[in-house]
Amino acid sequence: MKKLIRLLKRVRIKFRRSTSLTKTVVLSAVILSLAALLTLHFAISATRKQAEELRSEAAQLEQENKELNDKIDGIGSADGVEEEARDEGLVGENDIIIIPNSGK
Known about the structure:
mainly alpha, rod-shaped
């Protein structure tokens, strides 16, 4: 351990001035890194926006699906058939609707 400490005390690090090529390479690397970060930032922002739009569309479609399922459930009754016929304009408000019995 003592030998290692003596060896480290003898080690001298000499810094040299960097060449213009080294400075150019480092500056280019920094600029390219910043450009890559900005590109990734914009890509992530666009993806988040698209995900939010898709979530909104999914919620809207789920609501529409629920309404359609409720409408399907209501059509099974005589009142449901009458209401749907009136909504579609197949019969007038004062018309009498006769629904034959299915015989079951």
